[in-house]
């Protein structure tokens, strides 16, 4: 089974490489989300649970769009003693960086 995951990962990298060969400028946040989602799913489909990491965030970083995936926020839990417990989740899923002027994709796991 691990061999299939490695093969899927390598095929995803090849797919992103092909996407980079045919890339065009990415000028809007919506374009960045669509391209980032396509790239992340191509590379990490057998590794990352995109049902769990269902929230897509995007940030304009000047020359790049940063698109990443995270879990939905947890609602606070009020315990019997009145204490309110909140869950904080650190980290996230894959981060995709997209050059605005070329549309080329730089994939990486968040640090």
Question: How would you describe this protein?
Answer:
The chain is an alpha+beta fold. It is 32% helix and 25% strand. It contains two helices and six strands. The strands form two sheets. Strands 1-2-5-6 form a four-stranded antiparallel β-sheet. It has a two-stranded antiparallel ribbon with strand order 3-4. Strand 3 (77-78) and strand 4 (84-85) form a beta hairpin. Helix 1 packs antiparallel against helix 2 (29-44). The longest helix has 20 residues, at 2-21.
Shape: flat
Content of β-strand: 25-35%
Sheet of most strands: 4 strands, antiparallel
Task: Measure the end-to-end span.
Answer: 27 Å
Strand order of the largest sheet: 1-2-5-6
Low-pLDDT ranges: none
Global Rg: 17 Å
List keywords for this structure.
6 strands; single chain; alpha+beta; four-stranded antiparallel beta sheet; 32% helix; 111 residues; two-stranded antiparallel sheet; 25% strand
List the helices and strands and how they pair.
Elements: H1 2-21, H2 29-44, E1 55-60, E2 64-70, E3 77-78, E4 84-85, E5 94-99, E6 105-109
Antiparallel strand pairs: 1-2, 2-5, 3-4, 5-6
Helix pairs in contact: 1-2
Task: Provide a quick synopsis of the model.
Helix content is 32%, strand content 25%.
């Amino acid at each position: 089974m691990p061999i299939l995951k490695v093969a899927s990962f390598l095929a995803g990298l090849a797919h992103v490489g092909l996407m980079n060969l045919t890339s065009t400028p990415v000028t809007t946040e919506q374009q960045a989300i669509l391209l980032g989602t396509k790239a992340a799913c191509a590379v990490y489909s057998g590794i990352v649970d995109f049902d769990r990491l269902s929230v897509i965030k995007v940030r304009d970083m000047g020359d790049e769009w940063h698109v990443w995936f995270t879990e939905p926020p947890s609602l606070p839990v009020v315990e019997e003693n009145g204490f309110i417990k909140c869950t904080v989740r650190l980290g996230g899923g894959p981060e995709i960086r997209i050059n605005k002027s070329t549309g080329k994709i730089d994939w990486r796991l968040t640090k």
